[in-house]
Amino acid sequence: MKSITKLMVVAMLLVAALVVAPVAATRSGPGAKEISSGDTVYVGEEGLKFVADFGGNSGAGYNITRLIYFSGDTAGQSIPVVKGSHTAPLTLSEFDVSKALATTTGTYYAFNDTVTVDKKNAAGTVDIRVPNVNLGVVLNNSEDDRIHSVDGKSVTRSADLIFELDTNLAVGFKGSTAPTMNIEVTLPGGGVVTEFKNAILTDVKINETTKFYTDNFSLAGATAGTYTAIAKWPEGTDFYDKGYDSNSVSFEVLTKALAIATDKDSVVRGNSFTVTVTGESLKNYWVRVKSGDAKSPLIAPGQTAIPNYGLGDEWNRTIRTNAGGNAVIQFNTSSTGTKTGTGTFTIEVVDPDPKTDNTDEVKVKVEKGSVTITTSGTGTYYIGEEITFSGTCTDGDEVYLFITGPNLGDKGANLTHLGPVTSNDPGSFTKVDVEADDTWSRKWSTISADLGAIDAGSYTIYAVSEAKGKGDLSDARYALTSINLRTGFLRVDPIGAVAKGDDLKIAGTAEGNPDNVYIWIFGKNYYGGDSNKLNVESVSVESDNSFSKKIKTDDLAAGQYFVIIQHPMGVDEVNAGSFTNVAGSIGWDTNGNVGRNVVGAATSATLTKLQAPAAASALVDILESANIPDTYVKLTFFVDEAYLFIDSIGTKEAGSKFTITGTTNLAVGGTLNVEVTSAAFQPGEKGAIPEFTGVADTVVIEKGDGGVNKWSFEVDATGFKPDQYIVTVDAIEAKKTNSATFNMVEAGEAPATTPPAGETTTPPAGETTTPPAGETTTPTEPAPTPGFGALVALAGLGAVAFLVLRRK
């Protein structure tokens, strides 16, 4: 029973749905103005009337007052209706559909004044649409093949055309009630006609189909030029001058039966160009390169305008035009492999019909491209640096690089390994790919395992569009640039003397782009490491070629030391063999073994078995070997026992301001802690509050005269009581301390400020703040011969602060 009830409910809902959503009907009758429920009307129509029995309700057509659009079940857009009369003569309700009223299109429900606005109370429905007419112009091959539009295209006089109208008006009209349109054609000279080549284009009736056609017309004898057409609503119709005319179309009638044109008069070899053939619509033609061969521009494969690419060859193909009588054909040129020849080529189009003599041709010039090359930087480089070569190439997909210079071969040498290049052998050159934007780039290291050694001097770099060496460049495109290579060298800042506890700074520049430099230090019983172990400091070289290393002196004994700074000259790693560490071109271990096995000679030494002067001399002998590319700078410096002196202070008055000064050999910029505290000590009475006065702060060491640095401390004794005071000066880093005392008396009681007889502000007897007699910190140039020799010879170097040694 429940199932039957459900079926009845569903059936009732379907009936209700049919009432509120009727199927669109096609109206007819006198003037097609009387509207039945479900009919379609169009925005722009005027004076529409409801039939008397609208919606099956007798007399409904006389009293409908409004049409309402619903969004779901919610009433929205409303169109007013002029109510009909029930008195003689009876009149039906009328309404207009204007753009202003029907801003929403779709199904509208009709109501009178006596019912509640609800879909179920509607007398019926009307479907409102916007009229749409689309005009086209197509080839009239047959009624079954009107698919090729010529709108915006060029056609020849041999074509037959027809206008096509596609509308949505057939839904609302049928038979004799269908509205009509006029198609206006604007001629090349500016005149407007509605009859063209025997085709009548007025009163074109829109019948019951959505797409229909005018009379066809032939272009035989038509004036060359551009034609434009538009379908318009004639004056007196509801849609006249309301913006519902069709779109416009155009086509060009050509003067020639067959023509060919190119997009480029000239092209650089390696690029493509296109030709456009204009002829009859959908017709085959021959396109060819006159006197074509493998070095001619070739027709690109896979083009839609070549329906059967297998017919013909790469410079002679059958092509087919489109509906507009056009075909675009791409030709490729090559700058690699079998290169396209240079010169002017003639491209010809031929009508294959033997009854015609239609042909046309166009000329295209193929030219060689160009190659450019530039270098990074100034053009002068140190051996070991990396150079970037870059440029452009419009004559190929690859650039071939080679270098020329002393003893590098008549044709030039490969940049990678300096082997000779051979013309027409691409593998013998350094080859670089050209990017899509015609640019190329290659980095070149002036020292590498593959390159080996290259001498300082002037060289020329060639960039060529094909594998051609020097002397065979007459048919190639190329460019060149020159570079100058210099030997890398060291420049080291002055060192001089350093107080024990201060950091020793070794700094300078290393030209030649090394990754590191190496610092060797020798002194009495000292080889750079702890417990008589050999140690070498590896210091990174920055991008600006500078290097810097701070070395602690806390554990160094006072005396003279010798430094060797080693430049690897681009060889940053060697086969260390039994050595555990590498320093440029030589190996070393903490046991003091240093050296390198080279062809024909074994260069090695155990430095820790030698006294410091001999160890330094042995290392220099190794670096001076002709088989070692490294260069070096040798320096000496002194470590002095740190001293910290306080100048005589004298007696001061309470409440005064005064300065405590002193001297030191500690480095400029270092800090000292200074304390001034009361020195008095005596028993106090029970319950008494002890009083202490003093002051403390830090001061910075400043540069003094004669190599003696100075410091000063300002004291404001306001609030100080008369007493004896202790001054303590402490250098934390250098672990050096000194102290002195002075007396402070009541104001007005202080004696003269002249230091007492016998007091001095200079260091005690036996101590000095300057280098030993005969030594100097002025930079000197070393002797050209290698080695230090005996200790006396080493000391003779003095405090060498700046020295540059280049390997020749």
Unreliable sequence segments: 1-25, 754-808
Could you tell me the radius of gyration in angstroms? 53 Å
Number of helices: 4
Number of E-state strands = 58
SSE class: mainly beta
Total separate domains: 6
Biggest sheet character: 6 strands, mixed
- What's the overall geometry? elongated
Written account of the structure:
With 808 residues, this protein is mostly beta strands. The chain has 6 domains: 20-129, no CATH class; 133-253, Immunoglobulin-like; 259-356, Immunoglobulin-like (Sandwich), CATH 2.60.40; 374-486, Sandwich (Immunoglobulin-like); 490-625, no CATH class; 644-681 and 691-745, Immunoglobulins (Immunoglobulin-like, Sandwich). 5% of the residues lie in helices and 38% in strands. The chain is built from 4 helices and 58 strands. The strands form 14 sheets. Strands 10, 12, 13, 16, 19 and 20 form a 6-stranded mixed beta sheet that branches. Strand 14 (195-196) and strand 15 (199-200) form a beta hairpin. The chain is elongated. It starts with a helix and ends in a 13-residue tail after the last helix. The model is unreliable at 1-25 and 754-808 (pLDDT under 50).
Lay out the secondary structure.
Layout: H1 2-20, E1 34-35, E2 40-42, E3 48-50, H2 60-63, E4 66-71, E5 74-80, E6 94-95, E7 106-111, E8 124-129, E9 133-139, E10 153-155, E11 160-167, E12 180-186, E13 192-193, E14 195-196, E15 199-200, E16 204-205, E17 211-213, E18 217-218, E19 225-232, E20 248-253, E21 259-262, E22 266-268, E23 272-278, E24 284-289, E25 298-299, E26 312-313, E27 316-320, E28 326-332, E29 343-350, E30 359-367, E31 374-375, E32 380-382, E33 386-392, E34 398-404, E35 430-433, E36 439-445, E37 457-464, E38 478-486, E39 490-492, E40 497-499, E41 504-510, E42 516-522, E43 537-540, E44 546-551, E45 559-567, E46 581-583, E47 586-588, E48 593-598, E49 601-606, H3 612-623, E50 631-640, E51 644-646, E52 652-653, E53 657-664, E54 671-678, E55 694-700, E56 709-716, E57 723-731, E58 736-745, H4 791-795
Parallel strand pairs: 1-3, 2-8, 10-20, 22-30, 32-38, 40-50, 52-58
Antiparallel strand pairs: 3-6, 4-5, 4-7, 7-8, 9-11, 11-17, 11-18, 12-13, 12-16, 12-19, 14-15, 19-20, 21-23, 23-28, 24-27, 24-29, 25-28, 26-27, 29-30, 31-33, 33-36, 34-35, 34-37, 37-38, 39-41, 41-44, 42-43, 42-45, 45-50, 46-47, 47-48, 48-49, 51-53, 53-56, 54-55, 54-57, 57-58
